[in-house]
Amino acid sequence: MIESTAAISETNPIIKEDLERIVSADLPWNLLQDKSVLVTGGGFLTAYLIKSLLALNRLRQLNIQVICVVRSIQSIAVRFSDYLEEPGFSVFHHDISLPLPSHFPYADFVIHAASQASPKYYHVDPVGTLMANTIGTVNLLNHALKNQSERFMFFSSGEVYGIPVNAGHLVREEDYGYLDPMKVRSCYAESKRMGETMCVAWAHQYDLHASVVRPFHTYGPGIALDDGRVFADFVADAVARKDIVLKSDGWAQRPFCYIADATLGFLTVLLKGRKSEAYNVGNPDAEISVRGLAEVIVNLFPEYGMSTRIEVPAGSKAYLESPVSRSCPSIEKIKGLGWYPSTGIKDGFRRTIQSFL
Question: What is the pTM of this model?
Answer without folding.
Answer: 0.94
